[in-house]
Specification:
heterodimer; A: about 300 residues; Alpha-Beta Plaits; 14 strands; B: about 230 residues; mainly alpha; 12 helices
């Protein structure tokens, strides 16, 4: 549905987005992840027609962004970062203005506003001035704004930033609800949120896509090495290392911190291999060590994210 | 067209939501009223000439104050990102804002209609010059609004927008009054550039095509420059 080809954006010398190729299918929730300054917002801004790309092309369905900007804008609803609304308007007037701009007439504007007020739970603030709203409400008004024209594509730039945990859950619920029918693209640097809501995750770093896939694929694919952690009593590191090293496909055995109350903590890295845990357990059993802990470290998205975006 | 109207309505309403509109209108009426009537009775003539002679100067600083927020405020608050990602063209946005500014100037002139009405009771007033004067005032106001809109599109800082706008407007107002200091070969150009010259011609009650063309081209150039600036952003 959306096709980006060799998309780049430079701010003077600084390259914010670097030759990105990306295809987005309809009906999916896509999460854009990346550290601050990775180029997430710039990419979304180009996608919504706010910025002109330095080079490359954006196609949405049969339309080209450079030529048919207006048609593409009609298909899109956009919530910019930190929801910069018109502060001196009342919430109702603001939504009414947006409805008119989306081409709704008076009666359909009214019923649409009514629907969105219900969906985004805006009853309490509908007659307040936008400037008096709390951050959470402002974000929800922004969300209502983005959905006003019943767009096929919803682009949300950090929709949950600065919200408290309850508000985050509420916004996330709304996103999930809409995501059943629409294409949603949203950026975030909260990993758990992306993991919980997205069908597809893209990690951007220095303007380039460094990972692309669903949460499971990313967890498996980032690197082939896995880790087992164990805590042992009555054991010396040298003995443990000698014993465990013998096992096939073990790559490395490391001490994790110092011995504390006679407990030795060990990290074993190994290449994927069936039955390795049984093997290791049998080895340990042959000694007179006391096994206190024995677990495989599951790779979190946090870890993958750090691996991919940490500076070398 | 519809989108232009929507933006026009929003911007025009916006003026009256905040107290700025009322303050600007009050100051405008105070200044024009004071300068006009303080000398009015000395001449003992039933004419609005004094009022219209002063108008290019008062407009040159009042109008940039009215228009300075049109783009600058949106840039600094970030709301421009919202406006720009709605299904509108740049032309819709610029025309909507320009018409709202011009409509506000007209609204500001309406209370001054009390002057000709009051004067017509005490003497023989030539209504032809009054109508010409107001028509000229609207052209002049629209021209300065376009300049103010342009200067507002240059910066996110409203004060800077005001200073740039007022400078251009004052230059165009004064260039016709300083002909005395200019070399002879550019006199014609300087006079033609001057808003005061064209405004005075219209306000004499003689509506000449050339003066109208001048104001229309002034508006067009300023709005086109605005379009170029916005398109670059």
């Amino acid at each position: 549905m959306i096709h980006l080809r060799k998309l780049s954006k430079y701010y003077g010398e600084l390259c914010a987005v670097d030759q990105v190729d990306l295809d987005i299918n309809s009906g999916k929730v896509l999460g854009l992840l990346g550290p601050n300054g990775a180029g997430k917002s710039t990419m979304l801004r180009m996608l919504t027609g706010y910025f002109k790309p330095t080079s490359g092309s954006i196609r949405v369905k049969e339309f080209d962004m450079a030529k048919n900007t207006l048609e593409i804008k009609k298909m899109m609803g956009y919530l910019p970062e930190s929801a910069p609304l018109y502060y001196n308007m009342l919430v109702y007037d603001y939504l009414d203005f947006i409805a008119r701009m989306q081409g709704l007439n008076k009666s359909s504007a009214n019923s649409r506003i009514h629907e969105l007020v219900n969906l985004c739970k805006l009853h309490e603030v509908i007659h307040k001035s936008v400037s008096e709203l709390s951050k959470g409400y402002r974000q929800r008004v922004g969300l209502a704004h983005a959905m006003m024209g019943d767009p096929e594509i919803l682009v949300l730039d950090e929709p949950t930033s600065g919200l408290d945990p309850n508000q985050i859950v509420e916004i996330r619920e709304i996103i999930k609800e809409i995501g059943k029918e629409k294409t949603i693209i949203f950026s975030s640097h909260i990993l758990s949120e992306v993991e919980a809501t997205c069908d597809r995750i893209i990690i951007i770093h220095h303007g380039k896509i460094v990972a692309d896939g669903d949460a499971e694929a990313l967890k498996g694919g980032a690197s082939q090495e896995n880790t087992i952690n164990m805590s042992l009593k009555n054991a010396k590191f040298n003995d443990v290392e000698k014993n465990i090293r013998d096992i096939d496909s073990v790559v490395d055995v490391k001490k994790d911190g110092n011995i504390n109350n006679g407990v030795l903590k060990i990290m074993v890295s190994y290449k994927k291999h069936p039955g390795i845990m049984e093997h290791m357990y049998k080895k340990i059993k042959q000694q007179d060590w006391i096994l206190l802990e024995f677990y495989q470290e599951t790779k979190t998205l946090e870890k993958i994210f750090r691996e991919l975006t940490m500076e070398a | 067209m519809n989108q232009t109207m929507n933006i026009f309505c929003k911007e025009f309403k916006d003026y009256f939501i905040t107290p700025i509109a009322y303050i600007v209108i009050s100051i405008f009426l105070l200044i024009t009223g004071w300068f006009f009537f303080s000398t009015f009775f000395l001449y003992s003539q039933a004419t609005l000439r004094g009022f219209f002679a002063l108008l290019p100067f008062t407009f040159a600083f009042v109008i940039p104050a009215v228009t300075m927020k049109l783009f600058s405020e949106e840039f600094s608050a970030g709301s421009y990102e919202i406006l720009f990602t709605l299904p509108v063209t740049h032309t819709n946005i610029i025309m909507g804002k320009f018409l709202a500014g011009t409509a506000f100037i007209i609204a500001m002139l309406i209370p001054t209609l009390a002057y000709p009405v009051a004067i017509s009771f005490i003497g023989e007033l030539d209504w032809g010059t009054v109508i010409g004067g107001y028509a000229g005032a609207i052209f002049l106001g629209a021209g300065y609004t376009a300049i103010g809109l342009f200067s507002s599109s240059l910066t996110r800082n409203q004060i800077i927008a005001f200073i740039i706008g007022a400078s251009i407007c004052f230059f165009l107002t004064l260039v016709g009054k300083m002909l005395f200091f200019l070399p002879e070969n550019i006199l014609g150009i300087a006079q033609y550039l001057s808003t005061g010259f064209h405004f005075q011609n219209i306000s004499k009650g003689i509506i000449d095509g050339r003066n109208i063309v001048y104001f229309l081209s002034l508006i067009f150039i300023a709005l086109y420059a605005t379009w170029l600036v916005i398109d670059e952003k």
